[in-house]
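Ops channel
N.P.: pipeline sanity check, posting one input/output pair.
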């Protein structure tokens, strides 16, 4: 393994290590009120566009890094949509947002819609 590939692998592992606690805490507490929905949306749009560039590169650590980053960003956006009430300014936790998504089928629709948007953007 050359130095560049090694640096890519280390970078990917560091990213995983730094984002895992955020995702675990969000799932454990069901509180995503500290995240801005605008930020999460823009991050996902940016990831979709950046995917075009990443796919033009030879397979390597950047593909894994981008896959993980895109997955984490999409997951956090889906949690924010699910656990934040509609019309809220981005503040609010699961108790306030569950009126909008009363059952699992609603969450499943959000997940399917999110992945449909991401796959459409990345395959275009």
């Amino acid at each position: 393994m050359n130095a560049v590939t090694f640096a890519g692998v280390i970078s990917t592992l560091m990213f995983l290590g730094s984002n895992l606690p955020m995702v675990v805490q969000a799932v454990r507490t069901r509180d995503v009120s500290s995240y801005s929905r605008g930020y999460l949306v823009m991050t996902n749009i940016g990831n979709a566009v950046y995917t075009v560039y990443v796919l033009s590169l030879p397979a390597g650590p950047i593909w894994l890094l981008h896959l993980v980053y895109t997955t984490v960003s999409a997951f956090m956006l889906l949690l924010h949509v699910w656990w934040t009430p509609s019309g809220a300014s981005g503040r609010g936790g699961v108790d306030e947002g569950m009126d909008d998504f009363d059952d699992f089928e609603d969450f499943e629709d959000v997940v399917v819609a999110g992945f449909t948007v991401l796959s459409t953007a990345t395959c275009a």
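N.P.: looks fine end to end. The two ends are 33 Å apart (CA to CA).
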